[in-house]
């Protein structure tokens, strides 16, 4: 069970970092400090979101409520990251839009993969 969780968290975080750093480059974010900030913010938010999704899958029934729950968690992540980016990101004029775009890509690619 522990190995499964480590793998689940590790793969999710790794894919999220690759996708969101790529999204940052596409968005035009090039400063090394900004790319590091994006990495650190995702290290903070991704495990929390994955943990909540895992808890839901373990203890709640499947169905329409699952996708609503996932979207609520993802909305909280977008808002949290967007506020951090607005306060500290130097290379983007629209940090909330970047957060929405990057997390949207990450979320939907995650659904497709797994």
Automatic annotation (TrEMBL):
Q: Which UniProt keywords apply?
A: Membrane, Transmembrane, Transmembrane helix
Spell out where the chain crosses the membrane. Answer: 6-28, 35-55, 67-84
Protein name as annotated: Uncharacterized protein
UniProt source species? Blautia hominis
């Amino acid at each position: 069970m522990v190995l499964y969780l480590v793998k689940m968290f590790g793969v999710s975080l790794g894919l999220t970092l690759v996708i969101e750093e790529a999204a940052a480059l596409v968005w035009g974010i090039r400063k090394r400090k900004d790319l590091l900030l994006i990495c650190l913010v995702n290290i903070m938010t991704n495990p929390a979101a994955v943990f909540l999704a895992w808890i839901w899958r373990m203890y709640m029934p499947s169905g329409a409520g699952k996708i609503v729950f996932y979207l609520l968690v993802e909305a909280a992540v977008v808002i949290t990251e967007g506020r951090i980016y607005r306060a500290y990101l130097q290379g983007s004029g629209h940090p909330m839009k970047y957060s929405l775009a990057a997390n949207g890509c990450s979320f939907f690619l995650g659904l497709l993969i797994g």
